[in-house]
């Protein structure tokens, strides 16, 4: 047994004994007061009179009444563009050394400020994730194995007074010195911006490493593992990394990728979900008997929740000004909410673009259920990405197929609307039978969809393509690897362009 690993494991256990989980509601109130206090003399804090809010009897209510809900465009146009010009004390005290470039599913042009306080918050969340490993049944020698973190390039773009890159690259570039001996693929390979070159170098160096855990977006982790297996002529990844035991997923729901990922393994891993975004490290899975993630309620992020209903959302997926906004004290379990955050990076009542469901209010645990702009509701379908993912898993079992990616849109056909699905799979399937089964599954799962099928939604079609075509599209029009995600829902014009690409 590893002496170092045993010491680390004991240290984590002891840390867990001397610390306790905070009360979520009290912790969140303290976080908001701290945010307002620290930012009260910024331009934003003066504009919305944070000092008066702090002196009010109900700080949360006063904050919600005074400060409007923001999306990225509103914050950028009103405030953040000053930061990129070099101004300081705009939405958070001081200036910014980093800006996170978003490569998510709704935009490729976001520049999110990343303050030193946010980097500290991300580090503390990482430590909290590590200490929660005491809840998982892991042997002592796991704790001295290496960690493969597959993210964006750490070779950041230098500007006059700051650097830019994706949040995974910024975080990796700021890893503490003591951690770098465990971190793979190492700074040199991680700095490569070309995805194919990065994966090729990983495959070449893989025999030298003793990897105990993986971290990254599922689709790109899978592509990397395939390259390592093929290059080294292996049957499974455990042939070269026998001590691999944990996979920390993030960015998207993991379950749609589980079946295909496990074909590359000799045995299943311990899967742990995390919620790291360009705007901060929001949540992590802390116990093995659930896939839900606990919000980081005492670490520089204040959470708010808008019921995800047609009454609260406009046609562009934005929260309406009159929408009722709740805090953790008032939310209900098993209800879809639009997530708002205020953070130590100077985001204020910021609509991050995700929808979440509270699964355990006492533990402040959530699941990501979709994206506000990837909610399919053109003709009343009211389908969330969560429901779509569950439907794909049912199709995998019924047709014995691996579904890696999918994209859907409501498009016109013969003057009427249909739902057209393009599904990336590992083999061909009878498309007519697949579409029929998918339609039946969704009718059973969603009463609004069932009503739409009897009225305005006149048909369902499915086209099955090799998943490599979808990844090729991503490489051509978005980006391959890193934090890049495949959109689940597209508007009709974008979808038709996408369809032409994969058909060619």
UniProtKB/TrEMBL annotation:
<dbReference type="InterPro" id="IPR055377">
    <property type="entry name" value="GH3_M"/>
</dbReference>
<dbReference type="GO" id="GO:0005737">
    <property type="term" value="C:cytoplasm"/>
</dbReference>
<dbReference type="GO" id="GO:0016881">
    <property type="term" value="F:acid-amino acid ligase activity"/>
</dbReference>
<dbReference type="Pfam" id="PF23572">
    <property type="entry name" value="GH3_C"/>
</dbReference>
<dbReference type="InterPro" id="IPR055378">
    <property type="entry name" value="GH3_C"/>
</dbReference>
<feature type="domain" description="GH3 middle">
    <location>
        <begin position="295"/>
        <end position="361"/>
    </location>
</feature>
<dbReference type="Pfam" id="PF23571">
    <property type="entry name" value="GH3_M"/>
</dbReference>
<feature type="domain" description="GH3 C-terminal">
    <location>
        <begin position="388"/>
        <end position="492"/>
    </location>
</feature>
<dbReference type="Pfam" id="PF03321">
    <property type="entry name" value="GH3"/>
</dbReference>
<dbReference type="InterPro" id="IPR004993">
    <property type="entry name" value="GH3"/>
</dbReference>
<protein>
    <submittedName>
        <fullName>GH3 auxin-responsive promoter family protein</fullName>
    </submittedName>
</protein>
């Amino acid at each position: 047994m590893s002496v170092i690993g045993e010491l680390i494991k004991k240290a984590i256990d002891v840390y867990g004994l001397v610390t306790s989980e905070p009360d979520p509601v009290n912790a969140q109130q303290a976080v908001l007061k701290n945010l307002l206090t620290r930012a009260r003399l910024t331009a934003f804090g003066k504009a919305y009179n944070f000092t008066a809010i702090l002196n009010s009897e109900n700080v949360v209510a006063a904050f919600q009444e005074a400060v409007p809900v923001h999306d990225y465009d509103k914050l950028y146009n009103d405030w953040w563009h000053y930061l990129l010009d070099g101004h300081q004390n705009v939405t958070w005290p001081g200036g910014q050394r980093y800006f996170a470039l978003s490569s998510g599913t709704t935009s490729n042009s976001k520049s999110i400020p990343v303050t030193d306080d946010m980097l500290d918050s991300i580090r503390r969340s990482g430590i909290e994730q590590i200490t929660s490993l005491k809840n998982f049944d892991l042997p002592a020698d796991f704790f001295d194995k290496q960690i493969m973190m597959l993210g964006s390039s750490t070779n950041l773009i230098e500007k006059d007074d700051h650097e830019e890159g994706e949040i995974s690259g910024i975080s990796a570039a700021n890893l503490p010195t003591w951690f770098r001996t465990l971190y793979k693929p190492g700074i040199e390979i991680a700095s490569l911006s070309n995805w194919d070159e990065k994966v090729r170098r990983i495959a070449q160096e893989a025999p030298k490493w003793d990897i105990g855990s993986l971290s990254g977006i599922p689709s790109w982790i899978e592509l990397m593992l395939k390259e390592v297996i093929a290059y080294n002529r292996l049957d499974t990844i455990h042939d070269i990394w026998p001590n691999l035991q944990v996979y920390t997923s993030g960015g998207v729901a993991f379950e749609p990728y589980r079946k295909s990922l496990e074909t590359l393994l000799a045995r299943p891993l311990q899967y742990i979900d995390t919620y790291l975004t360009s705007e901060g490290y929001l949540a992590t899975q802390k116990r093995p008997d659930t896939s839900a993630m606990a919000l980081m309620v005492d670490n520089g992020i204040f959470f708010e929740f808008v019921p995800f209903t047609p009454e609260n959302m406009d046609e562009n997926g934005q929260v309406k000004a009159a929408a009722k906004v709740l805090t953790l004290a008032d939310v209900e379990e098993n209800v879809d909410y639009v997530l708002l955050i205020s953070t130590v990076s100077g985001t204020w009542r910021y609509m991050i673009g995700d929808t979440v469901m509270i699964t355990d209010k006492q533990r402040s645990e959530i699941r990501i259920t979709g994206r506000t702009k990837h909610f399919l509701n053109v003709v009343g379908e009211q389908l969330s990405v969560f429901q779509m993912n569950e439907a794909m898993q049912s199709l995998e079992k019924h047709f014995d197929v691996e579904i890696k990616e999918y994209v859907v849109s409501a498009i016109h056909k013969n003057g009427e609307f249909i739902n057209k699905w393009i599904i990336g799979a590992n083999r061909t399937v009878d498309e007519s039978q697949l579409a029929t089964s998918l339609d039946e599954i969704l009718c059973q799962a969603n009463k609004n969809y069932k009503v739409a099928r009897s009225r305005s939604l006149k048909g369902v079609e499915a086209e099955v393509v090799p998943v490599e075509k979808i990844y090729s599209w991503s490489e051509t029009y978005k980006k391959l690897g890193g934090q890049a995600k495949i959109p689940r829902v597209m508007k009709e014009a974008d979808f038709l362009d996408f369809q032409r690409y994969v058909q060619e």
